[in-house]
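debug: dumping io for the single-chain case to check the tokenizer round-trip. Nothing else runs in this session.
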Amino acid sequence: MTRVLIVGIHTFDSGKTHLAIELGRAFINAGRSVEYFKPISGHNYWYNYQHTLKCLEIGQLVSKDAMLVKETLGIDSDLRLMNPIHSLFVPSRIDRPLETIPNSLGLSGSTSILTMQRFSQPLSDEIDTTVLIAESLVEEEHLLIGFDEVGKLTHETSVSSADSLEAFQEFEMLYFDKYVTSSFSKISRSTDVVIIEAFNDAAWPWEALESVDHVFVVCPGHIFSYDPERFRKAAFLMKRGNLPIREVTFGRMSDLLKPSRKLEIRPQCSLSSSDLYALGID
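debug: decoded output
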């Protein structure tokens, strides 16, 4: 089984998901089965409202990117395992411009209150899901999301109240690796290729991922290939204290190593077999 890790140079809009789709298409056209894995993600209720509506329609809080890849490549796996952890940020109700709420969940400003976070893992032939909710903020109607909408997104899940950033962080610290590792194991069990998309510009997605076969770092116009083991070692070299490895951004470690290959690409390009060969994929 081949593992491909895609890392973004920039926090947003590096082109990771587009590359994941094009790599997936190329592998499928070559007769290989493909899975996609995005361990952690999040979206804003307001700025990505069309995606929020899709989540409400299917009754699952999931990644926009994972949904797009699944639909485009025709992947059969459950979205909740392809994307085991996903957060929802919701604007707060305010009485005056630039008002902030007196809660650590609003550290990013009034337009982005951490409101929900879903954790999913395989359990026998089913999927076990726990959703953390900023329950007091929702019940007291401090947020633009309605209680009925929260109900749709938590249907048939275990719900846990988390009314501070510290509560969300504590749960994530305790259970992140467990949920991600078990979901990844299930996803990658019977496929030829698994494409792993890192979160934002994180250099390495989670501690228990011991190795990959290819590392591609992407930005508009370019794909860079790196030696996988050297890339992993460089990421862990920059890890600080007890902070998770996903806190190490590519920018912090980029000076420690050089790309082994480079491919220049055009907007909305497709990848040919010669492009794959240029990136080191046989």
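debug: round-trip ok. The first strand starts at residue 2 and ends at 8.
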